[in-house]
Amino acid sequence: MCGVSPVERSSGHRQFRRLNRGGDRQANAALHRIVFTRLRVDPRTQDYYERRIKEGKTRREIVRCLKIYAAREVFHLVRGMQSQPPS
User: Fold this and answer.
1) DSSP of 3-29
2) How far apart are CA 46 and CA 80, in angstroms?
3) Considering the entire predicted model, what is its pTM?
């Protein structure tokens, strides 16, 4: 729903994925800010980034993976807040 799911864009023997251009653009922008803030501040995210670079992943691929991970975290937080009765 946030436009972070990968979309296949393959040709012949080459396998490509790109970000889905659909979805809620404001939510995608928020995830973008979350990911780049984490890359600057969070040591776990920085370690993950370095590990993926050594595996040969591009910056775009790494950011896409981090956005998907952040979207899952935010979804579980929002879902948990909705299930609690208002106080």
Assistant:
1) S-SEEE--BTTB--EEE-S-S-HHHHH
2) 28
3) 0.70
